[in-house]
Amino acid sequence: MNDLVRTGIAGLDEVLHGGLPRQNNLMVEGAPGAGKTTMGLGFIYAGAALYGEPGAIVSFELDAAKLMRDAAGFNWHLEELIGAGNIKIIQTSPAVLLSEFRNPDGAFAETLRSMGAKRLLIDGLTPMRLYADMHDMPFREDLYLLIEGLNRLGVTTLVTAERDESMGAVPAHERFVFDTVISLTRAEVKRRVQRRLTVLKSRGQDFIAGSHTMRIEPNQGVHVYRRAQSRPHNMHDQPTSQERLSIGSKAIDDMLDGGLYKGSVSMVSGISGTGKTVLSVQFLSSAIAAGHKTLLVSLDEHPRQLARNASSLGFDLDGMVDRGELFVHYESPLELELDVHFERIISMVEKEGIDVVVFDSVAVYEMTSPDEVADYLYALATFFKDRLATIFFNYESPELLGLSQISEELKGSHLVDNIILLNYVEISTVLRRAIAIPKVRGSRNQQITREYVIAEGGLVLLDETGNNVDPNGVVPQLPFSSYYGLLSRSPSRQSPVIEDAIAQGTKMPESVELPPEAAT
User: Fold this and answer.
1) 195 vs 221: CA distance, rounded Å
2) Of the candidates 259, 251, 264, 254, which has an alpha carbon nearest to the alpha carbon of residue 387?
3) Which residues contact 190 (CB under 8 A, 6 or more apart)?
4) What pLDDT is stored for residue 4 in this prediction?
5) How many whole angstroms separate alpha carbon 159 and alpha carbon 132?
6) How far is residue 220's CA from residue 517's CA, in Å, rounded to a whole number?
7) How remote is the C-alpha of 105 from its chain's centroid?
8) Residue 118 burial class via C-beta count within 10 angstroms: exposed 0-12, middle 13-18, buried 19 and up
């Protein structure tokens, strides 16, 4: 029983910690279209084609030609394995099969023994139940007869069972008698089909509980993507580093007390147009110059548009990609599934040795899966911290002026080590940009608000010692240090410095010159 049988179904063996205990009887239940028969065919095909374990398929409803046609759609050529004697398709009726199980030396048992069968698919259990109901026979007795017969055959069996919620769930005793029970669901969410897989029980082994994303994919069949939150991490030995990475601007590095710690997680929050993506590209360029491999996960903009916009500020993203310094992963929010997305990202990170990653923007996760976003980002942060990778989460704040909270769902900052706020500030009729860094773990960050512009090379902080007047000549545009409440929801329209000059009869402070911004 310690010998595990690999199902050969992508991702399922990982959920089962290696496979099924040999000779376990597995029931796969689900509604029509959930993928039960496809999973069963994949189980039999993988055994014969990959693991040298011949198998038989018992079908009550689909004939052999349709089964082979469906399998061929996944590039599984059953006819070759049937010709070699490694797979046999048996089309029969529930009555005949049950009578065969009453006789341990019947033709069915002899067929399995003669081909050396190690695996068996019975598709499905529901016709057997309906047959018993039609003939006023106690199906529970037939079910125990089936299980006893399977145990005598010494094969690992997968049995499919229909489950239609409108007609009630699979009877409880069916779940009791099978060693392993897997539930498949198919639901329409925002006009998209989502499939999920849950292992309800599996005798003789541990497994990863919970709901996992499942897809039926070309040339592969069923593919299970384990839930992102199930990734193991070592809570007692998380790596840390004293090394700091430049964000790409000395002035912002100074605000951070010397840059970002390697292995830290940062969140950059601001409304559209404040320069979150620009700061991200600036950071990635600096990391590449320091010898790091980088990844930009784009959920808002297509890579071609990103490259075009970045080139206007002097960043050559295409060149970075061609040299293998930068990887760009783009997925449309319309079809995004978090578990699948997570698997693709970590596979790329592990394969390419990436240690600096930007997510632009995590607001997309919140839009597609609001109930799961906080746990998902925690799983991402934990995975990358365990690899000592440095991470940027961009988040688009819904507020134009002010910031009451980072997100209604995320609630703030326990997920991240550093928070960078990018904001608009209205001075008279002019919108100016402000940066503040309220949180940097393990650092003495500057608790001030600075003004910046978007120019060649990224975000450029302004020197507050200028002496030029506003070109509009309406209201003096003073340095930020002359105002109160720059990040408040309703920033002050009057300057305390001006009020003091008026009260004391002294000279007004000089205005600053606002340089023109580059196109973004």
Assistant:
1) 13
2) 264
3) none
4) 92
5) 17
6) 51
7) 51
8) buried
